[in-house]
Design brief:
Strand order of the largest sheet: 8-7-6-9-10-11-12
Number of domains: 2
Shape: globular
Bound molecules: 2-keto-D-gluconic acid
Keywords: NAD, Oxidoreductase
GO molecular function: glyoxylate reductase (NADPH) activity; hydroxypyruvate reductase [NAD(P)H] activity; NAD binding
Organism: Thermohalobaculum xanthum
Pfam family, one: 2-Hacid_dh_C
Family: Belongs to the D-isomer specific 2-hydroxyacid dehydrogenase family.
Order of helices and strands: EHEHEHEHEHHEHEHEHEHEHEHEH
Length: 319
């Protein structure tokens, strides 16, 4: 008898093929997120669950999971949707999918940076809506990022690849991280022990840290006041890192030139008050959304499940 694996969201054909070949797979082919009760109900007769960040495994959901469920093998690098302590206490393993989405997410960070700096959405809307009836050298003037300072908050895998891409624009890399990274990974980037020091020096601040109780709301009024006047904020990590009311204040006062955001406090949907501003470049949480990366994420989650049922330690265990 093959273990039963519940895949909560529609993944790629290649991932469906592999999970259906190797397991007794239950696939959700509707583009619908299971609510709390349905998630609990669907997990009752399964040995493993392969969810995305859209399924919330809070402590009460985990308490209601069956004894037979061995692993929550996430199709995401972020695991803030899972109460890791509760899972550990219940003896359920939790894994994620690091590395394989770093390139795709760094690409989106560059898109957000350039879209914000060069007024991408504003220009696109103007042309599409037939409002482009004027041109002058003073028209649609943005900020150049080439040669400026990139400030990376969270120098993990995605932060490091984003730094590499920014180096391609001749940007000088500064970063803040819980601890300094090895010199061969740092590649000359300037470490700031203190977040405020990074905020004061960077022309672009790009967020790449996980959402935790310590980082939630870290980009607040005080943080935006620290930033250089006319700086740019990029967020491809988690909406929870940013106090969106404070961001709106900084964008409307001119303290920030613009923001490029792929993630929001409320998802799906975003923040209508942010959407009403011109100086924002907005995307619907598509950092890892390339076919190559989606295949790789699904395979990586399945590698972790394979390890659990082969009695091995999964490579990407986080709890
Ligand atoms: C995904 C993400 O969009 O990996 C993460 O933490 O937020 C994204 O890559 C999502 O979780 C896909 O399942």
């Amino acid at each position: 008898m093959k273990p039963v694996v519940l895949v909560t969201r529609r993944l790629t054909d290649a991932v469906h093929e592999r999970v259906s070949r190797d397991y007794d797979a239950i696939l959700n082919m509707e583009d619908r997120v299971f609510g709390r009760d349905e998630l609990i109900a669907r997990c009752q007769d399964v040995d493993a669950v392969l969810p995305c960040h859209s399924e919330v495994f809070s402590a009460d959901v985990i308490a209601a999971l069956p004894k037979r469920l061995k692993v929550i093998a996430n199709h995401s690098v972020g695991v803030d949707h899972v109460d890791l302590k509760a899972a550990k206490a219940k003896g359920i393993m939790v894994t994620n999918t690091p590395d394989v989405l770093s390139d795709a997410t760094a690409e989106i960070a560059m898109l957000c940076m350039l879209g914000a700096a060069r007024r991408g959405s504003e220009g696109d809307r103007m042309v599409r809506e037939g409002r482009w009836n004027f041109w002058s050298p003073a028209f649609m003037v943005g900020r150049q990022v080439s040669g400026k300072r990139m400030g990376i908050v969270g120098m993990g895998r995605v932060g490091q690849v984003t730094a590499d891409r920014a180096r391609g624009f001749g940007m000088e890399i500064h970063y803040h991280n819980r601890r300094r990274i090895a010199p061969e990974l740092e590649k000359g980037a300037v470490f700031h022990d203190d977040l405020d020091a990074l905020l004061e020096t960077a022309d672009v601040v790009s967020l790449h840290c996980p959402a935790t109780p310590e980082t939630t709301g870290m980009m607040n009024d005080a943080a935006f006041e620290r930033m250089k006047p006319g700086a740019i904020l990029v967020n491809t990590a988690r909406g929870a890192l940013v106090d969106e009311d404070a961001l709106i204040r900084a964008l409307t006062s001119g303290q920030l030139f613009a923001a490029g955001l792929d993630v929001f406090r409320t998802e799906p949907g975003g923040n209508p008050r942010l959407s009403a501003l011109e100086n924002v470049f907005l995307l619907p949480h598509i950092g890892s959304a390339t076919s190559e990366t989606r295949d790789a994420m699904g395979f990586r989650a399945l590698d972790n499940i394979d390890a659990v049922f082969a009695g091995r330690e999964p490579g990407d265990r986080v709890a």
